Structures are given as C-alpha cells and as structure tokens.
TrEMBL record:
FMN binds at residues 29-31, 85, 154, 184, 239-240. It catalyses: a 5,6-dihydrouridine in tRNA + NAD(+) = a uridine in tRNA + NADH + H(+); a 5,6-dihydrouridine in tRNA + NADP(+) = a uridine in tRNA + NADPH + H(+). Belongs to the dus family. Coiled coil: none annotated. Its cofactor is FMN. It comes from Desulfocicer vacuolatum DSM 3385. Catalyzes the synthesis of 5,6-dihydrouridine (D), a modified base found in the D-loop of most tRNAs, via the reduction of the C5-C6 double bond in target uridines. The active site is at residue 115. It holds the Pfam family Dus. It comes from the Bacteria. Its EC number is 1.3.1.-. Keywords: Flavoprotein, FMN, NADP, Nucleotide-binding, Oxidoreductase, RNA-binding, tRNA processing, tRNA-binding. This is tRNA-dihydrouridine synthase.
Amino acid sequence: MTASSFMNFINTPLTIKNSTISNRLLLAPMAGLGHIAFRELVSEFGGYGLLFTGMCSAKAVPHENPAVSPVFKWRTEELPHLVCQIFGPDPESMARAARRIEKEGFFGVDLNFGCSVSAICKKGSGAILLKSPDLAVAIVKAVRQAVEIPVFVKFRTGWENNVTPAVDMARRFEDAGAHALVFHPRIAPDRRSRPPVWDHITHVKQAVSIPVFGNGNLFELSDCKKMYKQTGCDGFSMGRMAVARPWLFAQWTRGFVPDEHTAFNAALRMTQLLVKYHDERTAVKSFKKYVPYFAAGFKFGHAICKELLKGDEIREIQDIITSLAAQKPESALRPNLHLFS
C-alpha cells in the first residue's frame, strides 16, 4: 500500500450503525486526560473522526451535573462527534447511564471492559468483567436495548496470553448488539509493561463484521499503516501520543505541519483551557497529569518534565513554558516511553 492510498483509507468515512464519521482516527478514552479542556485543544487543531470522554461512573452519570462534574462535562458543539465512556459492574446501572448519555445528545456510548487499574477492577468493573463473560455480554445487551445511539465496546485480550477468549468475546459482543469494537491487544495484568500483540487484532477483526479499531503503541503514521497492513482493522484509537501531540489528527489527515512553536503553544493553550473550566487548584493538578506526556515528545523530556512540575500556580507554569520554549529543545520522533505512565 502506497502512502497516498493509506492516507485515502484514513480519510474514508466510516458508518457505525446509522451514523457516519469523517475519518478513521479516534481519540482514545483516557482517565484524567481526556477531559473537556484537552478535547477542546484537540478540536482547535481538528482532524479527528471521534472524540471520547474519560471514564465516567455508570452509577454517577444519571445524577451528574455537568456544571460541576470534572468528567461528565462537554461542549455542545462537540456532542455530534463525542462518545461517552462508562464503567460499571451490572447491566442495570450501565443501561441507566446510557439513557442519560443518549438524552444529552452524544454520538455514542462506550463500555469499558479494558481498564485494569485495581481500584476499578475491585469494584467489579473494567477488565475484570472479562473474567465473567456472561455478565459482560449481558451489559452490552442491556445497553443496546436501552438506546438507539451507537454502542462501542473497549476491551483487552483478557487475563491470560491467549487470544481465543478475546475472539469469542468479540463475537458475543457483536451478537449482543455492539456496533463497534475498540481492541487493546494486551492482557490486563501487563497494563503496558509489554508490547501489544497486534496479531490479536487480526483474529478479532476476522471474527466479526462490525468495525474494529486497533489500539496500542501507535506513535507515528507509519505505525498505523503497519497495523492496518497486519490486521486489516477499520481504524485507529489514539491515546498517549495524542496527549503528547494533540495536533497529530490534523497532521495525519489534513497535512498540518507543526513547527518549533507548536508544542509549547499547545501547552500554553492547555493552561488557558484548564482555567476556563476549573478552579486554579484543579487546573494545576490536571496540568501536572498532562506534563509527562507532553515532555515525552522531547529528546531530553525528563528535564522538561522536572521543570514543569515545579509550578504550583498557572501563572508560574506559563512562565516556565515560555522559558523552556525559548531554549528550543529538540523534539523526539518517537516518545520517551519511560514518561508514558
């Protein structure tokens, strides 16, 4: 496949249920990172197919007030392209949350069966549901029956290094009514300690007729091309690299060319957007979660990270950003994985 033909593929619209997205790149749901401020930053560059919220508790969503919630919050203009991800342990709470999400006008709802953080799994949610296949399938079925918007399922290979259960789950999720799958080919205990096994995406894709989006170590456009050639996936879910470079969607779909000012201008804009939506303390805390990902885009990222984490007020952080930008640090083609948590 030539570079131009692959670019044509990425920019080919895709229908999910009865709705169409403009291209094959998704912003992955990321807890603590995919908040309203970051999504607005991505939107200012453009070029994405869909945006996803961070993880929202299904039990909380029916009663959440977007005016004060740090997670269940959105801009009206992003709703036609925004999917809300929810986590929960049972079909009833997940279905109730999905109804609220549909009522608010989201593009779709995403069911989290991939988070392997112990705090989530101990609540019977996230990746732990892959150990209870019948319950996971019941959740998908209940949500599908509750709403008309597209239903996505985000899941991992499972808990053992064997793709067979994941293939079986993919088929069962489709049979239960899922309209698209976002597959992360790592086992839950690994988190990100070992490379994703892209060949697992191949098996999942071959098992179903609904769209399958691949996720895992997509750092350059060439990585997406390799994943597509190897797996035949329908699109790509971009996580950590999108935080490091929120312009990558525009770069990969519209030909946007970043310059030496792009990264630091984006970091400054992030501070402004965080203050727009949050109080100072919350804004600083959120920015510090963003810092390691931003710093990973530079050759000497650890030093940049260390400097940015010194700031305790937004104004101070902005001064540090300006000072670092003046030094013109060299960017890295591929990220420093030691900074990607």
